[in-house]
Amino acid sequence: MKKCESCGSYVITQEDIEAMRYLHKEPGQHGDPVGDPGIPGIAGKKIRYKFNINYHMYVKLTDFGKAKIIEKCGTEYFKYCIESNLQPDGYYQLQAHTVMQLLGEYLYNGTRNLPFDLNVYFDDEDLELGVM
Question: What sign has the CA pseudo-torsion 9, 15, 18, 23?
Fold first, then answer.
């Protein structure tokens, strides 16, 4: 993909189409792309990824974020519902709406206490490709 200099969004290139052919899933599988990357005319189109907030996201909680969850929900909740989802890479696997509910109020422009690292991850099968 390349970044559009005028609007800052990303556009898909012919090389991306070739790479996506390998990622295209069989029809009916969870997370199918919205359109076949092999359709002529897709090159140069803006793309978006649709993500359902019931699916998991991966966040690396800061000490501030951990403390706020414990303050809001208690130590037992943190131990059994959060800590139990810690992955080997240090990221927590949580439903996106849970992250929003527990920590959303601490995310705003200019905040100095972030509840989690700003780089988050999603499983590729949970993202649906859309073309604009």
Answer: negative
Q: How far apart are CA 60 and CA 82, in angstroms?
A: 11
Distances (CA, A) of 8 to 2, 12, 46: 10, 13, 11
pLDDT digits (tens, 9 = 90+) for 15-43: 666 566 545 444 444 443 444 555 555 55
Same domain, 114 and 63: yes
Cut 0.70: pTM above it:
no
Question: Is the same domain home to 39 and 75?
Answer: no
Q: How many domains in the chain?
A: 2
User: Do 31 and 47 share a domain, yes or no?
Assistant: yes
Kindly state the tokens that stand for 47: 């793309």
